[in-house]
Amino acid sequence: MRVLISEEKIQAKVQELAQTINRDYGNRNDLEDNPVLLVGLLKGSFVFLADLVRHLTIPVEIDFMAATSYVGTQSTGNLIILKNLNESVHDRHVLIVEDIIDTGLTLYEIRERLLLESPASFEICTLLDKPVKRHSAVPVKYVGYTIGDEFVVGYGIDYNEQYRSLPYVGVVEGAVEGAEGSDRE
Ligand code: XMP
Ligand code: MG
Hints:
- The protein has helices spanning 7-26, 46-53, 105-115; strands at 2-5, 36-42, 60-71, 77-83, 93-101, 121-129, 142-146, 152-153, 169-171.
- By secondary structure, it is an alpha/beta fold.
- Magnesium ion is lined by residues 41, 44-45, 98-100, 185.
C-alpha cells in the first residue's frame, strides 16, 4: 500500500472544508427552521461525513442514499437506487457528501433526480476529485483533494469491500481499476 494522502492531511482538509461550509451557510437566516440536509452517498462517504459533521457549527440533519451506476451501451448511464432518502428534499438545503467523483455519472444522475423535487439549494462536497475520466459534468462546490487517475482506497473507500477502515487514502499496488474492484458506491 502506498500512502497518497496522509491521515494528518485529510484531517486538516476536512477541517478546512467544514470552515468554508460553516461560513457559506452561516449567514442564512432560515437554517434554524430548515437545517442543512447532509446527504451521504453510501457506502464510501461514511467516514468523511462522520468527520466533517463534527466540525460543522451550522444546524444540520443527516440522511443517506445508496446508488450504483453502470454504463450501458449508450454514454448515458443508468442509476439504481439501493436506498433512497427518507423524505423529500423539497425546499431543503441539500448538501451532498461524497467520497470520490470519477466519471461523474453517479452524481450527475442523483443531482438530476433531486433537482426535480425543487430543493431550496443544492451543492456537492467531495473529499476527492478524479477529473481525468469525467464525462458527466457536475458542478462541485467543495473539493478536498484533486487526484490523478489512480485507484484509491481507505478513509471509507474500498477495493472489494476491503480497506474502508484505513485512516489515510492509499493506492493498492497492482490493483486494476474496473476489474471487480469497486462496486461503484
Ligand atoms: P462515478 O464514476 O460515477 O463513480 O463518478 C463514483 C464512484 O465510483 C467509485 N470510485 C472508486 N472507488 N477507488 C474506489 O475504491 C477509486 O479510485 C474510485 N474511483 C471511483 C466510488 O464508489 C465513487 O463513489
Ligand atoms: Mg461513493
